[in-house]
Amino acid sequence: MANAKQVEELKLTLLERKELIIKNIQGSRDSIDSLKNSECKDEFDYAEISSDSFKEGIIANQQVKELGEIEDALKRVQDGSYGICDMCDESIAIGRLRAKPFAKFCTPCREIYEVEK
Ligand SMILES: [Zn+2]
């Protein structure tokens, strides 16, 4: 079980990660906007630009998803349920939380969850 000090450290990790993602999302939106504003000289250029925007869009979506998970974890820090598995109510190992601070499930439950999915 993560103690108060460890939770505090993990909370800082979450907050740093959150800031980074927000910056990244903002950055990729800016570059998509500048691509849209740039002139397309021929069809080949256009194809390149749209596939880049497409990739950026996917990356941005993943980051939005991660951002949601981080927000969720921060809420759990607030209400004291952070570090407790959502499925079995057992505490999540500190090593797992360090590797993935927004983990919702302990390792065994995560494995079950992934198999069932
Ligand atoms: Zn569990």
Automatic annotation (TrEMBL):
Name the UniProt record assigns to this protein: Molecular chaperone DnaK suppressor DksA
InterPro entries named in the record: DnaK_N (IPR037187), Znf_DskA_TraR (IPR000962), Znf_DskA_TraR_CS (IPR020458)
GO molecular function: zinc ion binding
Domain of life: Bacteria
Keyword field contains Disulfide bond: no
Pfam families according to UniProt: zf-dskA_traR
Zinc finger regions, dksA C4-type: 85-109
Gene source species: Poseidonibacter parvus
Transmembrane segments: none
Residues in Zinc finger DksA/TraR C4-type domain copies: 80-114
Phylogenetic lineage: Bacteria, Pseudomonadati, Campylobacterota, Epsilonproteobacteria, Campylobacterales
